[in-house]
């Protein structure tokens, strides 16, 4: 798979490595600042998303020989093929609890290092002055929200680092004809981290083929697609859909009646209706326009980055805590840097990089420091307290609409009404059958008598036989959650009396900021 080198390094010059270090330091410092602020706000270390605990719960079940969240029940609750596997070590311990943080710290460092290489290459061949390159190296990790994506504790930062490695490896190949091992590995791994990585990886393979390396391209294409096909076959063998339930939920729940082209157009419209979507679309357009003005390796790299960005806007999402689109944002800006040269096209590319870094402030950081930095406090005051109540007091099966914290380290069944951890609930909601009372029969068949849900989303879904006993209220409300009030329901007077007694014992142990408000009915 390795060709004879063709003028290695001919377009890179002597890269100033201090720029790589500067980018890395900037990324780590901004990450430390965000983590410190979140720790102060919450009073404890906590993740800003309940989804982290879904993956920890899945890892826990995998160590027991099951693929899912609840003991013995298969479910595809993760959008990533391999992220739950990365959380397998030290299952059920506090060391495992810290693995999402450690993986994201490592991925942040790798992504910043790779992005710094792109800056250094542009500076090394004179396309950037040392002063401008230094400003970009310092500002880019903040403006492109690297620290914010690592803060989530999810697989997205690993995917961002993999995407940058794919782009850098492709650039090396286009310039010297070498297929490096780390490039081949990241082309394969990127879609296994996130399905969105397929576009960039397959476009890279197409370029390898167009360069005359058809056998290598075919082998690499199979290496990308076969693991995904085997994973789909595994899910089907378990009795599930060919795609994870979390992926299907994102695809179907917004507009269950739409299919095909209508769904694609709706998705594109939703993406372009957001400031971040317009920001990304402008970068995609700039990259594709510059591709037409360049020749050779630069044209091909820009085309790959631009087409991958267009694919994301068309079929993927811009997501919660801005974590879904960041990998393509890194890719587009790095492609502009790698192909930058002196003269008019280079000046336009530099303007695009500058605007991308500057626009990242209002596009991403306003949300982060106004709301998302408070999310660990919100998760601690709500989800962690729900989990503590179930684990220490209820000790029985329960229905929820946020699955992770309650399910992790819990041997009792946790029914996910949202659908990520329950295929039948997802089918009921996605199929348009989610009328009042739809959840009651599902829970009755499972022998579940208690529910902890957001009333405005799922109160009516439980049905008339269910009565609210109390609300867990966040006061004052902080962060961004589905609601700041969780309602506790029981399906009969006897169960309500039992639940009331347990909640009254539990209420005095709540931390400041969490209040148990009783309905007064029981």
| Tally of DSSP helical segments | 23
Total strand segments:
6
- Low-confidence segments: 1-13
Summed over residues and divided by their number, the pLDDT gives a mean of 90
Roughly how much helix do the residues carry, as a percent range?
Answer: 55-70%
The N- and C-terminal alpha carbons lie at a distance of: 72 Å
Overall 3D geometry?
globular
Strand order within the widest beta sheet: 2-1-3-5-4-6
How do the helices and strands follow one another from N- to C-terminus? Answer: HHHHHHHHHHHHHHHHHHEHEHHEHEEHE
Largest sheet: 6 strands, mixed
Strand content is 5-15%
Roughly how many Å is the radius of gyration? 24 Å
Instruction: Give me the secondary-structure category.
Output: mainly alpha
Describe the structure concisely for a colleague.
The chain has 522 residues and is mostly helical. The chain has 23 helices and six strands.
What this model shows, in words?
Helix 19 (404-407) links the parallel strand 1 (398-400) and strand 2 (414-416). Mean pLDDT is 90; it is low at 1-13. This protein has a 6-stranded mixed β-sheet with strand order 2-1-3-5-4-6, with helices on both faces. The protein is mostly helical. It is 63% helix and 6% strand. The longest helix is centred in the first third of the chain and has 31 residues, at 94-124. It has helices spanning 17-42, 51-63, 83-86, 94-124, 130-143, 146-151, 156-176, 181-193, 197-210, 214-237, 245-252, 260-272, 275-293, 296-315, 326-338, 344-370, 375-381, 383-394, 404-407, 423-430, 439-446, 455-462, 493-506, and strands at residues 398-400, 414-416, 450-453, 467-474, 485-490, 514-518.
């Amino acid at each position: 798979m390795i060709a004879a080198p063709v003028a290695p390094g001919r377009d890179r010059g002597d890269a100033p490595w201090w720029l790589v270090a500067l980018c890395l330091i900037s990324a780590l410092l901004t990450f430390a600042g965000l983590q410190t602020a979140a720790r102060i706000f919450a009073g404890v270390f906590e993740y800003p998303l309940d989804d982290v605990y879904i993956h920890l719960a899945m890892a826990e079940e995998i160590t027991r020989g099951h693929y899912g969240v609840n003991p013995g029940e298969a479910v595809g609750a993760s959008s990533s093929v391999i992220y739950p596997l990365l959380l397998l070590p030290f299952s059920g311990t506090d060391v495992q609890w810290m693995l999402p943080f450690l993986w994201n710290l490592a991925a942040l460092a790798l992504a910043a290092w790779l992005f710094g290489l792109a800056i250094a290459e542009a500076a090394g061949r004179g396309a950037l002055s040392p002063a401008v390159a230094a400003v970009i190296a310092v500002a880019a990790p903040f403006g492109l929200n690297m620290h914010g994506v690592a803060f989530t504790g999810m697989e997205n930062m690993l995917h961002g680092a993999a995407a940058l490695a794919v782009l850098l490896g492709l650039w090396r190949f286009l310039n010297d004809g070498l297929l490096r091992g780390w490039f081949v590995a990241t082309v394969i791994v990127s879609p296994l981290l996130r399905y969105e990585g397929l576009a960039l990886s397959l476009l890279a393979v197409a370029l390898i083929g167009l360069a005359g390396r058809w056998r290598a391209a075919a082998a690499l294409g199979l290496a990308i697609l076969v693991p995904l096909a085997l994973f789909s076959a595994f899910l089907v063998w378990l009795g599930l859909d060919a795609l994870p339930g979390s992926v299907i939920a994102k695809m179907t729940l917004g507009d269950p009646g739409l299919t095909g082209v209508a769904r694609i157009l709706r998705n594109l419209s939703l993406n372009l209706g957001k400031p971040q979507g317009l920001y990304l679309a402008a970068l995609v357009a700039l990259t594709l326009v510059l591709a037409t003005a360049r020749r050779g390796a630069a044209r091909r790299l820009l085309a790959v980055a631009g087409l991958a960005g267009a694919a994301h806007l068309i079929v993927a999402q811009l997501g919660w805590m801005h974590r879904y689109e960041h990998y393509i944002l890194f890719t587009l800006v790095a492609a502009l840097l790698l192909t930058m040269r002196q003269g008019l096209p280079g000046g336009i590319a530099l303007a695009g990089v500058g605007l991308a870094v500057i626009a990242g402030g209002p596009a991403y950081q306003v949300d982060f420091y106004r709301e998302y930095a408070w999310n660990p406090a919100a998760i601690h005051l709500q989800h962690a307290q729900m989990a503590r109540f179930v684990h220490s007091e209820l000790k029985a099966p329960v229905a929820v609409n946020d699955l992770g914290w309650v399910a992790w380290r819990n041997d009792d069944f946790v029914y996910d009404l949202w659908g990520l951890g329950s295929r039948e609930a997802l089918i009921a909601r996605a199929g348009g059958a989610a009328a009042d009372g739809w959840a009651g029969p599902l829970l009755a068949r499972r022998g579940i008598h208690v529910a902890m849900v957001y009333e405005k989303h799922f109160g009516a879904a439980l049905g008339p036989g269910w009565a609210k006993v109390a609300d867990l209220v966040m006061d004052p409300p902080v962060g961004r959650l589905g609601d700041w009030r969780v309602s506790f329901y029981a399906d009969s007077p006897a169960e309500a009396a039992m639940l009331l007694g347990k909640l009254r014992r539990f209420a005095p142990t709540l931390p400041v900021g969490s209040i148990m408000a009783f309905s007064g009915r029981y």
